[in-house]
Specification:
Chain A is 42% helix and 23% strand. The model of chain A has no long low-confidence stretch (mean pLDDT 88). In chain A, strands 2-1-3-4-5 form a five-stranded parallel beta sheet, sandwiched between helices. Chain A starts with a strand and ends with a helix. Chain A has 125 residues and is α/β, with parallel strands linked by helices. Chain B folds into three domains: 104 residues, no CATH class; 140 residues, 2-Layer Sandwich (Beta-Lactamase), CATH 3.30.450; 203 residues, Alpha-Beta Plaits, CATH 3.30.70.1230. Helix content of chain B is 50%, strand content 23%. Chain B contains 18 helices and 18 strands. In chain B, a hairpin with a 2-residue loop joins strand 8 and strand 9. The longest helix of chain B has 48 residues. Chain B is rod-shaped. The chains are: A alpha/beta (125), B alpha+beta (564). At the A-B interface, helix 1 of A face helix 3 of B.
């Protein structure tokens, strides 16, 4: 079965940047999915149960924290690995994010090489 | 070749036919309209769209003459669809290449972000330089790097950091100092033309070189130089990156410099304050300030005061006026200084402090009481004895002092006005102590203390005393009992006084019993044994005088001292 990776960000250019960064994973049979807001993300996660989610924190229509909390604490989708993305200087969110059940935390601007390496590690590629 | 490779075209074709629903939909509608049956395979022949069939029309999908896929159709009009597919692939690839360019820029932004965060924590130029070169070498392909700063004080261009082996780098920097300085002054960034590199002996090992200035506002602190030893052209984009790194580094160096300067200024200031504090302590004894409950002189305010129980000691150089006349003012000053230099430490050793220097003597306070003050007095006399031996060898006059002591409470305070403050003590005790010291001259004693002061001694057995009777000092209602401590006298005089303590005491008894003849005889005997026993001589004279006087019943032997 193909592995699935969901990219959630309300900003189109960030989605594109992440897509561009992780594009090579498609060669390894990873399917890239996209969502523009929290609600959409939650629906996709329920439906597709992706292996990995890059989840922006600051978003309209349910922020990343809430999505994370619903996935981990309500739906108990423990096998969905969630990496929260937030702006530098907002590190106060880190603890909160981890409490919400996020598996990892990355700051924006993200380091593309690091992001790819983390994705490969989580997806065991 | 430049631009995306054929495999990239093939890849895009594949993902287009798999994922892009709108593209597939458009293609299918067109095929419907043209009533064309079609299939698409990539250049290796694997099917990407449709079913394998024996369509006779094959339309290669190509880029620059190279085929990356084939569209098969049963009609010639399938060629239109092939053209559409080619266009869609091309557009998709253009989008991708813009995307990867953006990602490249994003990578740079991220790097610069991290870099500025990293160097903002550094506070010395060398580690900023090292970090800058490290970062530069990570994003720019270079084999050599050099971080140079112009040191104004030395008028030299100095290497802060470098990477890559360069023969004689140090020597070359020194040799090219003038040139480098000019380059720095110019404050521009540039990719050095090939011929210029070839003509520069210092750059022989390099094939390409570029540099960027370390600019802060309108000044240039130095330059960063990057080089490559193999065939490689630095690009304008790389120069832009280097310029950005240089700019960030310059800002960091400047603020590190300001930080260091600020730190140094703060330290200098602290040092100055400490020195001032130390000096001020010498003018106003710290014990005095402490008595006021303060730590430093700067905390002291006009009107601060504290009441303390202390022993006040006055010491005075005997016959100073006579000595002074024989000396030049400067020599006088030197003499006083050399005297004070010997006495001060003794006072401090016995937990006292010198409150005031009085020209030919000083006033010292002993917060711990008369035992300490008396020990200090005896030691001062001993020290002078030794000093006088030295002076004698140099044919100088001997120095003698008289000491007077009184105990009592004393108010220490800060007096003056807002612009001129001084430490002052206000006390009757001070006046009395000063007068007692004056009496030591009159009696010819080395140390005099009051009855009250003697009563305050914690261990009177440590010393020997002679009672010299009550005196009426000016301004005091009650007469004061006066004692001579003999321990400060030089050895023969001390032994004499010690051996005649009983006789002297008897003499005093005759004297106060108004048996002046007996008193005179007794004092005569004592004085005869040692002509330097001046108190004995004084009482001998007094007794002899009183023999011939009419003495009233109210005579109590109280000596009235009207002058100091």
């Amino acid at each position: 079965m193909n592995k699935k990776l969901l990219i959630v960000d309300d900003e189109a250019h960030i989605r594109m940047l992440i897509e561009q960064t992780l594009e090579d994973l498609e060669d390894d049979g990873v399917e890239l999915l996209f969502a523009e807001n929290g609600e959409e993300a939650l629906e996709l996660i329920k439906k597709e149960e992706p292996d990995l989610v890059f989840l922006d924190v600051m978003m309209p229509k349910m922020n990343g924290m809430e999505v994370c909390q619903k996935v981990k604490k309500v739906l108990h989708l423990d096998h969905v690995y969630i990496i929260l993305l937030t702006a530098k200087g907002q590190e106060v969110d880190r603890q909160k994010g981890l409490e919400m059940g996020a598996n990892k935390y990355m700051t924006k601007p993200f380091d593309p090489d690091e992001m790819l390496a983390v994705a490969e590690e989580v997806l065991k590629l | 070749m430049s631009g995306p490779s054929i495999t990239a075209y093939a890849k895009v074709l594949r993902s287009l036919l798999k994922k892009e629903a709108s593209a597939i939909h458009l293609m299918e509608r067109l095929a419907d309209l043209l009533q064309v049956d079609l299939s698409v395979e990539d250049s290796s022949g694997s099917m990407l769209y449709g079913q394998p069939n024996k369509n006779e029309h094959r339309f290669p999908l190509r880029e620059n003459g190279t085929i990356y896929g084939v569209l098969q159709a049963n009609k010639a009009s399938g060629g239109l669809i092939a053209e559409l597919l080619e266009l869609l692939v091309k557009k998709e690839l253009e989008k991708k290449s813009i995307g990867s360019e953006v990602l490249g820029l994003y990578r740079e932004i991220n790097m610069i972000y991290n870099f500025s965060e990293m160097i903002s924590e550094k506070i010395d130029a060398v580690s900023i330089a090292q970090t800058a070169l490290e970062e530069a070498s990570q994003i720019i392909d270079a084999t050599h790097g050099l971080f140079l700063v112009y040191e104004e004080e030395l008028d030299r261009v100095i290497e802060m950091a470098s990477f890559g082996d360069s023969p004689d780098r140090g020597a070359n920097i020194a040799k090219l100092n003038h040139l480098l300085k000019e380059l720095i002054d110019r404050g521009t960034s540039s990719i050095v033309p090939r011929d210029r590199i070839a003509n520069n002996p210092a750059l022989l090992h390099l094939k390409s070189v570029m540099y960027a200035p370390l600019k802060v506002k309108h000044r240039t602190l130095g330059i960063i130089v990057l080089g490559h030893s193999e065939e490689k052209e630095f690009t304008a984009a790389e120069l832009k990156l280097l310029t950005t790194i240089a700019l960030q580094s310059a800002g960091a160096i400047e603020s590190a410099h300001l930080f260091q300067k600020g730190l140094k200024e703060a330290r200098d200031k602290e040092e100055a304050i400490r020195e001032m504090h130390e000096v001020s302590q010498k003018f106003v004894p710290k014990e005095f300030i402490k008595s006021l409950g303060k730590n430093t002189l700067s905390e002291v305010a006009l009107g601060d005061l504290a009441e303390r129980e202390v022993t006040v000691l006055f010491a005075d150089i005997r016959g100073f006026t006579g000595h002074a006349e024989r000396l030049e003012p400067r020599d006088n000053f030197l003499f006083i200084n050399s005297f004070n230099k010997r006495m001060g430490p003794i006072v401090r050793k016995h937990d006292g402090f010198i409150m005031q220097y009085l020209g030919d003597g000083f006033m010292a306070l002993f917060p711990k009481g008369s035992q300490h003050a008396l020990r200090a007095s005896v030691e001062m006399h001993k020290a002078l004895e030794a000093y006088n031996k030295e002076r004698q060898e140099k044919n100088r006059f001997p120095v003698k002092i008289g000491i007077g002591m009184q105990n009592g409470s004393l108010i220490m305070g800060i007096t003056g006005d807002v612009d001129r403050l001084d430490a002052a003590i206000i006390s009757d005790t001070v006046n009395t102590a000063s007068r007692i010291e004056g009496l030591s001259k009159h009696f010819g004693s080395s140390i005099l203390l009051t009855q009250f002061c003697k009563n305050n001694l914690s261990d009177p057995e440590e010393f020997e005393f002679r009672y010299l009777g009550p005196v009426q000092v000016q301004g005091k209602q009650q007469p004061i009992g006066l004692f001579e401590c003999i321990n400060g006298d030089e050895r023969t005089l001390y032994e004499h006084k010690l051996n005649t303590l009983g006789e002297f005491k008897r003499g005093m008894k005759y004297y106060f019993d108004k048996e002046f003849a007996m008193a005179a005889v007794t004092f005569q005997k004592v004085h005869k044994k040692n002509r330097n026993d001046l108190p004995a001589r004084l009482f001998l004279n007094r007794s002899a005088h009183l023999i011939t006087q009419e003495i009233g019943d109210d005579w109590k032997g109280i000596e009235s001292m009207t002058r100091k």
